[in-house]
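Hi,

I'm pasting everything inline rather than attaching a file, because the server keeps stripping attachments. The sequence lines come first, and each chain or strand is labelled.
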Amino acid sequence: MFFLDHIWLIPLLPVFGAAVMFFFGRKLEKSAVSAVCVGVVVVAFLFACIAVSQFNAWTNTPQHYHQPREIPIYTWLGSDTGHLNYLTHDGTLAPFQADVGFLLDPLSSIWLLFVTGVGLLIHIYSVGYMAHEGGYYRFFGYMNLFMFSMLTLILANNYVLLFVGWEGVGLCSYLLIGFYFHRKSASDAANKAFIVNRIGDAGFLLGMFTIAWYFGSLRFTDVTLLARSGHFRIGDPVITLATLLLFVGACGKSAQFPLYVWLPDAMEGPTPVSALIHAATMVTAGVYMVARSNALFVLAPESMKVVAYVGAFTAIFAATIGLVQNDIKRVLAYSTVSQLGYMFLALGVGAFAAGVFHVFTHAFFKALLFLGAGSVIHAMSGEQDMRNMGDLRQRIPTTYKTMLIATLAIAGIPPFAGFFSKDEILWQAWSSEGGAYRFLWLIGWVTALLTAFYMGRLIFLTFFGHPRMDHAVEHHIHESPKSMTGPLVILAIMSIVAGLLGFPHSLARLVGFKSETNYFERYLDPVFAREAKVFRAEGEGTQLAAGEREEEHTSPLEYVLMLLSIGAAVAGGGMAYRLFSRADKGFAEPMQVAFPPAYRILLNKYYVDEGYDYVFTGRRKVGDVRLGVMGLGEASSWFDSHVIDGTVNAAGWMTRAAGWISSLWDKVVIDGICVNGPAYIAQGLSYFPTRLLQWGLVQWYALVMVVGLVGFVAYYAWH
Amino acid sequence: MAPITTLHYLVVAAALFVLGVIGVLTRRNVVIVLMSIELILNAVNLNLVAFSRMWGLHGQVFAIFVITDAAAEAAVGLGILIAFFRNKETVNVDEVDLLKW
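And the predicted assembly:
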């Protein structure tokens, strides 16, 4: 079990490549850079294949039947001696511990294989694509750093290490989108991606803290075990809150409404970056995280409803915007947002395996589409506007054929991969919870129609019709080198056969298969506890993933819906063919001709970016008043300095006024009336009897004495 | 002629007393007022001696006290008069009214 026990080498190899680039990259030749960086990814991919096969062997033995394999390395945060304890929600002490440890189970195995596989193909492609660009070593260093972060994310055994990988991919996304940082639009786009991501990360962190507080542990195995033990009831409010917060994080990373705005702008980066990060791997991190937390989501039906509705809304919203975009990469960006919406729709209705299957197939055909678009741009000497392309079919045949295969896959035409995964999602949306999500099926179906339409428009404008480019560009059109077309062919093959891994039973039955053919879904059973019967729901309305396996009956409705999906795809493609396949110079966009106001709204992406600018960035003023959230800040500051401080000042002023009144009272009333008054009165009263008698004449005084004496004598003489 | 009894002495003393009092009250010159005060004191002496003939020597002893007292008082009074004269250049008692309100 060497490869399984040393699984930590898988992320370590790319980071070694990144370190070599960091220290020595500037001095190395381009060939040396390619050898190191592509070489480490090759080794990582082979290592991953062997590790997964060893894991499958291990997990099918009777004593480890369908258990995940945990490989702890060391304790990173916290202590394993129990010194870092904290109180959980019910008062018990739990140790805070986050290890660097790896978890391999079917979910992370799938992700591991396609991340390293598609990553490898894109690295090979980049050797050809970036051959004439500057900063070659920097590009590959960042790409390897990205591989390290993504592998850490998917192999982590606890939320904290997952978050480390989460932040790492966000960082690499910033570095790679802003690769041509001399261009202001590129550096702005990089900032936008990181900042919008950060908003999601805040939600993720809060969700993580809630889980730590409620479950007492951050390890996936502990949390899943506790969640499935029946200890909590369905609809537990704390778990609903935690899952909603985690979903906010997933919205930020996986570009769902309203945090999707960074993904179209991220097309400023080089095309391999768009293929790897913004199609196949980084944006699937949100889906991975939700799938990993499926035990929690199953306990919170309200959150799952939110996930499903947000996913469906994002799917149709982005699809409508993609209908009228002129930049080939923008169309693909909105397509990515839309398909991610499908994945969250699947997770929300409880069809976790279907969502993961769509991630898997989408990685192949979306990476193929982006790499093919890169090939087209390379052939057109940097032109990205589809209005200036046309009739490239015969000139770049390999690119055309592979992109056609990818378009058929994404539109959902059988037997290509996209049909099986998308159809599974739509069927689950229709039948889940006794039909509660039928409206979301309708949204998904309309989105499928729109997807076929805008992808058809892309293909027909680019490869069909009349050439609309400049003559100088036209002369330079050439097929891409083998290093670029090789990965295209391999991805095209995968886009065709990958769907067979998830062949639905309803179709297999028609050709006589009795056993379960949906290998993909069966492989993921242990992760989503479909065979575990420990969990029993208390009320009605249990979700499909709540521990019960759907019986192997197929209603005829499934075939009807399948035919409807195919019909939508064909109709969309057909409409696009009629409108765009004969496009000539100066062709008018049909929607612009038919519904000009609708066209304007769609072309301007529903003015969402402008809305955010007005509300959040605080750059807009009306006169002197700032708008939006920053305006609220300014208003609060004004309120604080004028009203609140004014109140304080008024209190001080009133104290002074009171003092003045007090002193007035003291001077006038107390001193004047009460003290001096009686004095004046006494003075006035005493005027007559006392003052007037003080003549100062001695003889008068003597006379008074004599009169008194005579009076005494007379008195005694008489009595 | 009737014999001279104590009564005659008392009457003379009373007469002298009244004269003295009138002098004190009505004369304008401060010196005359002082002389009138002496007259009052002498009248009282006469009274005391007259009664001492009947009642023992106490009266005479007291009369000697009074004479001493009168002498001291006259000295002091004249001193005040001289001090006052130095200030106000007058010996009219009407003009001693500094304590008038």
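Strands of chain A lie at 69-78, 85-87, 93-95, 97-104, 621-622, 625-626.

If the labels don't parse on your end, tell me and I'll reformat.
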